[in-house]
Amino acid sequence: MKLYLYGIIDSSNQIEESIYGLEGTGVYNIPFCDIGAVVSEINQPIQEVTEGTVLEHEAVVEKLATDFTILPVRFQTIIDGRDNLLSMMQSYYKDFKDNLERLHNKLEFGIKVIWPADKIKENIIKTLKKGKQKNPESNNSQSKKFMTEKFEKYKIDKEFQTKADKFIKVMEIFFSKFAAEKKLRKLKTENLLLDAVYLVEKSQESNFREAFEHIKSGQPSLKYLFSGPWPAYNFVILSKQSGLLTDSQKTDLLDKVTQDQMLVGADSI
Amino acid sequence: MNSVVVKSKEITLLEVLDRVLDKGVVISGDMVISVADVDLVYLKLKVLLSSVETIEKLRGSPFVGPMQEAR
Fold it and tell me: How far is A128 from chain B (nearest CA, A)?
């Protein structure tokens, strides 16, 4: 029997709500110690990745996120049988537990900021030209001309980066108060000034949204894409030691899995 | 359904795909039945996600005026 895995939750209890996953089969929790792996049974791996199947996966994760802290598992993770799943849970238990504790009561938000790179560069060139008129230079030789052009380009790029840094710094002043963690990517492309994800305490959600609105109104010439709240897809950190627990750690964990827990899981099949 | 809602949904779908196909817990090991197609799909999608032009096209608005939020 193959098990399609949606996520790891901070509960070993069965899910009270009826949730249906891929292929329309029921979703249930397989407990391991004090956490659980949420799965549904599946006949064969999905042959085609479609919008529908991706959305079905996400819908299950979203539903679980309303009642539990969840570590969303990547789409199309299928485990070959219950024994293998429990073995996987044993290997990753410490990582899962640490992440569940860290991400408890937290939400993820995505923010993309787009700026008109061409216009920004045009303005930089204009400003640099103004400065240049005050200090005219003669560039007669080819090599000197080449070097001057290179230097001009360097100055434009540097100023472009400085402007991006300045904007991100302002954003950080507002968001750092409300975000527990963040991942920022500056200038992924010239127009995509910032591609960021923030991890926010549930209690800070409204403050975070307010800060975003404040930034948006302060820079109306830029475009903003705000998304969320999401389960913390971007903030699960697995250590390199996963699956490589020492023998004593494995014994400790096996001791924690009581016969009762195994039976509760078995009943739900 | 008006066009703004449709565009917002399309942008949200890109955000969903980015997360579901590429982020979250990646479990490795023999017990996992691997399906290589997902990586291939995501590689194609990544180009789309990095493309501001795509977002612009979905939004269909110039660099002025109020912004639309995806969700």
Answer: 24
